[in-house]
Amino acid sequence: AHTLIGAGGAAGTGDAANLLKPALARGELRTIAATTWAEYKQHIEKDPALTRRFQVVKIDEPSEVVAVLMLRGVAGVLEQHHKVQILDEAIEAAVALSHRYIPARQLPDKAVSLLDTACARVAISQHATPAEVEDILRRRQALEVERGIIGREAAIGIEVADRQVRVDAGLAETEAALAAAQARWDREKALVAEILDLRARLRGEGVPLDPVGAEEAAGGEAAAATGADAPEKKAPGAKAPEVKAAETKTSKTKAAKTKAAKVEAPVAEVAASPPDSAADLARLRELMAELAAAQGETPLILPSVDRNAVAAVVQDWTGIPTGRMLSSQTEKALKLAATLAERVVGQDHAMEMIAKRVQTSRAGLGAPEKPVGVFLLCGPSGVGKTETALALAETLYGGEQNLISINMSEFQEAHTVSTLKGAPPGYVGYGKGGILTEAVRRKPYSVILLDEVEKAHPDVHEIFFQVFDKGMMDDSEGRRIDFKNTLILLTSNVGSEVIMDRTGNGTVRAGLDDLDTALRGPLLKVFPAAFLGRVVTIPYYPLSDAMIEAITRHQFAKIARRLRATSDAELVIGDGVMDLVKARCTEIESGGRMIDAILTNTLLPELSRGVLNRSLEGEKMTKVTVGASAEGFTYTFE
Questions:
Q1: Which helix (H) or strand (E) is 451 found in, with range?
Q2: pTM of the model
Q3: Pairing mode, if any, of strands 447-451 and 623-628?
Q4: What digits encode the pLDDT tens for the residues 577-587?
Q5: Cis status of the peptide bond prior to 231, with omega within 30 of 0
Q6: What is the pLDDT of residues 200-239, one digit of tens each?
Q7: Does domain 546-637 have CATH number 1.10.8.60?
Q8: Strand ordering across the sheet containing 623-628
Q9: Which residues have CB under 8 Å from 629's CB, separation 6+?
Q10: Assigned CATH topology for domain 326-541
């Protein structure tokens, strides 16, 4: 309706709405106009003469219960259009999941879109080649093209033996995978076809009538017929009326018998049908169980639109695992502490605290309006705080690309708040969004790392209060950004001296309660109490000798993998190497970064020079041994 307003003139003049005002005032034109609140305020409300011609009716977003009822009314149309069956659990899931994970749109619109997309996917899965089979076919085609190129090069004398072996092995593996996928597809196709046939037969028969109810219905009709005849039996009168009554009675009796026969026939049919329906239902359950066992976590064909089909669409739209992948995510959450401890050395207590919070969220017992977790990691530099965020993104969120990292030292001025959430109207950069809000809009399922948060301005700290409490932030354009599926980690070096003193520079394992109490004072000097009350503080221990050795082994394992990938050689670490690295780690305040500096500046240059010399001379290298001497590292190439 707002498009009728403002055709280039001033407010209330020169627009199409002025043509409607006389007819609206006389009551000759009955009109229903629809617009949004923002456009009503911007365009229509400025024209009082037009505003008073209409009665404003506010249409609120329906609740989940009402949206389910509305969606049930649309489900029949979607079934006829897509030629699929929609289960009621899919309708409820479409409303619940869209309301939870798609906050930018309104019910019932987003639930209808979600259910429509799920129906389309199910319909396509029943008629098109599955994506898994298509991927294998394309892979085979690429290998066949490469084999043709190898054949042409071999014909002109180019050495292609190694490539030929690799391509032949790849083709054999691809053919085996294609045969397995094709067999699985054929099996699922046969099962789904039989399931759909049984469902169509059962839906065609309808719900069997209860024999007792059928008898009562027949008795009711007979009683009604008898009641209609009763006045005629008692009515006195001449013979002619009696004859008429007798004839009427006879005809009605015949009609009642005919009707009773018609009633008894369906009752007899229904009485005979339950055994067949029961057998069909039992067979249907067997087929559904067999199909579920055959499909596992990755179905190729979907027999109907169920909760998993709807959840798969939500997962693709938002990146949040809500469907069949949820079971694997749950297993990862249960093993999270052990998985993180393999990568972050010596901070098992921190891994346990984070894992417990993630498990609470996965179980659905945490506050649904808050983020998955908000943790303040305190400790010296190089002890694994940033590595914790990288490990969480890799383990839970599918890769380090789902890590949103922001260096808070860049926000030391109050006006830099606009960089996080977007510039306000009238300022340069309005409409481009903030670096934090836009990143979370695109990746609502991610780890947020606020590095060196103590260096940010206090005004920057305060904008996170609503994020920590309500799991949301309004950007400069009024959009509500959802943080409910994010895991927020804040790192700080505040209190590092306290931790170093209490642990004797890593030689003593102090209690967590003592460290928490000791850290409280230094943290309150930097952060307000309201900020600390919204986060979980986790102290990180400085590195001990055992932790330095474990980190060094991790670094050597990475170097060994790179050497194997580039030179196809094995890396062997000799005796004394670990002791030499530990002896050179004199700057305990640098933490694990000192280990990386030692390997990068001393070991890797000499190792790289030896590898390059042998590559230049054309010598085959199968093993490299790194040893230790009084002068430093030694290298043996074989």
A1: strand 447-451
A2: 0.70
A3: unpaired
A4: 888 887 777 66
A5: no
A6: 888 774 444 333 333 434 444 444 444 444 444 444 444 4
A7: yes
A8: 570-573, 623-628, 633-637
A9: 576
A10: Rossmann fold (3.40.50)
